[in-house]
Each structure stands twice: as structure tokens, then as C-alpha cells.
Amino acid sequence: MTVPVIGYAGMTHLGLVSASAAAAQGFRTIAFDSDAALIAQLNRGALPVSEPGLGELIARHKRDLVFTADAAALGQCNVIYIAVDVPTDDNAKSDLTPIKTMVDRVRPHLAAKGLLVILSQVPPGYTRALPVPAAQLYYRVETLVFGRAVERATKPERFIVGCADRRQPLHHALKTFLESFSCPILPMAYESAELAKISINFCLVASISVANTLAEVCE
Asked: Which of 7, 200, 201, 213 is deepest in the core (most CB within 10 A)?
């Protein structure tokens, strides 16, 4: 079986760390962003984010990691992750426009049997509504933590994958990629995976609230 080529669209903290982890697994990885200045910076070895161990990870696996501002390069990929940031205002309302913009930019270059995987946080129902054939569309929950992102990306505890129909086997290219990390893969409906991501964030927020309350009690 041909080893799949993995693509990431959006060199955010999420996209950059995830692309580096894919390259570290030995997969040829195309890392795209429309910001040519950012791509030039990355090709110089200057990182736009501060994350322990990320620079060393990229340096070790730069042979398999290609940074580009040309969306057409994604046509080489069997799997393309959408990894853009989702701005959220003071009222906790998210602006999903960057995701739509990136999907629209990537779709013309999606290979005939290529897969599109949404990695950004979205509300339940978002992935299923995208104008992409269900057989080529997945959602994957990301659980990176600032300061420990490299560890979380290279040694994941599990993969939660949203599918059009969880009873169908995962596409072989995505399955090959995810199985390389040697952790459980949990397929479920798009909406269940999207809600799982939000639920994880709820738990993180709750843990901070509990810690702050306990600190006040201790004082």
C-alpha cells in the first residue's frame, strides 16, 4: 500500500504542531498557509509560536515537512486537515468564517479520492453541512495543551473521529495515518465527535474553576 501524504491547511499553533507530529511519524507532510510571509519565516526556521520542543521536532524531521503558500501543493495529499483558528468574542460567540474560507480554498485542490478532515473546533452539525462528499469528509477531535503540545501530538492517548456513518470502516489512508500512532481510534457520528470536543473544553474550564475556588477556600 502506498504511504499516504498528509496535508495541513493553516499554520496556526494547532496546524504547525500537528504537521510536525505527522512528519515525525515518517509521513511526507505538506504544510500550507496562504500567508507567504509566514511560510517564508517557517522556511527560515523561525517559529511564530513558542512551544517547548517544537523547533527541535521540526529540525529532526524537516526532510518530510514542506512549508508552502501554494494551495495547489495540497493536490499531492491523500488526507488534508483544516487547522485554522476560530476567533471567539467576549460573548463566547465563535466566528466560523476562517474555516469556511479555508475549506473553499482547499476544495479545488482535493484529490479525486482525497480526504478532508476538520481539526478546528466547530458546533455540532457543522461538518455534516459542508459541501464535501460524505465519503471524503471527517472530523477529528484535537486535544493539544499549550506547553505540552508536542507531547500530546506525538504521543496521543486516543483519536476521536467523526464520520458520516460510524458503522463504515475508516478510509484506508486516514486509518493508516492514525494507526501509526499506536493508540485507540474511536469512530462516531460527526455530531458526537464535535460535541466531544466541546465537552472536553467544558471539563477543562470546570477544573480551572474548581482550582480557583479551592484556592479561595485555602486563603
From this structure: 7
In whole angstroms, give the CA distance from residue 62 to residue 101. 28
d(CA 160, CA 186): 5
Spell out the residues 6+ positions from residue 49 whose beta carbon is closer than 8 angstroms to its own. 13, 16
Task: Report whether 158 contacts 140 (CB < 8 A).
Answer: no
Phi, psi of 44 (to 5 degrees): -85, -10
Whole-angstrom CA distances from 40 to 33, 35, 43, 78 are: 10, 9, 5, 25
Closest CA to 45 of 67, 64, 73: 67
Q: In degrees rounded to 5, what are phi and psi of residue 111?
A: -60, 160
Segment 116-170, tens digit of pLDDT:
999 999 999 999 999 999 999 999 999 998 899 999 999 999 999 999 999 999 9
- Measured between alpha carbons, how far is 110 from 203 in angstroms, rounded to an integer? 35
| DSSP class of 155 | S
Q: What is the distance between the alpha carbons of residues 59 and 43, in angstroms, rounded to a whole number?
A: 11
